[in-house]
């Protein structure tokens, strides 16, 4: 699972040359993303013990962190 746009560029560079996107979705938090991913993979219900996973993504902070690398 990767972010779209610039935030996912480094991750996409690690993929095989002939990779294909088979599913995409929007998510507001890590918990939201993993819930949708588990549903797509038919793995049952995603659970977490970390409340921070349910906090909305801070895209501005993620972009600042991305630029440091």
Output the keywords:
69 residues; mainly alpha; 3 helices; flat
Give a verbal description of the structure.
The structure is a single chain. With 69 residues, this protein is mainly alpha-helical. The protein starts with 8 loop residues before the first helix and ends with a helix. 38% of the residues lie in helices and 0% in strands. It contains three helices and no strands. The protein has a domain at 25-69. It has helices at 9-13, 30-41, 59-67. The longest helix is centred in the middle third of the chain and has 12 residues, at 30-41.
Concise account of the structure shown:
The protein has 69 residues and is mainly alpha-helical. The chain has a domain at 25-69.
Rg from alpha-carbon coordinates: 13 Å
Number of strands: 0
Task: State the share of residues found in helices, binned by percent.
Answer: 25-40%
Our measurement of the CA-to-CA distance between the termini, rounded to an integer number of angstroms, reads 19 Å
Structural class comes to: mainly alpha
Mean model confidence by pLDDT:
89
Biggest β-sheet description = none
Order of helices and strands: HHH
Spatial shape: flat
Strand portion, in percent? under 5%
Low-confidence stretches: none
């Amino acid at each position: 699972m990767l972010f779209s746009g610039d935030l996912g560029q480094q991750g996409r560079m690690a993929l095989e040359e002939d990779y294909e996107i088979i599913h995409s979705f929007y998510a507001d938090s890590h918990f939201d993303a993993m819930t949708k991913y588990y549903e797509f993979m038919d793995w049952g219900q995603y659970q977490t013990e970390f409340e921070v996973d349910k906090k909305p993504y801070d895209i501005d902070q993620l972009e600042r962190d991305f630029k440091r690398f």
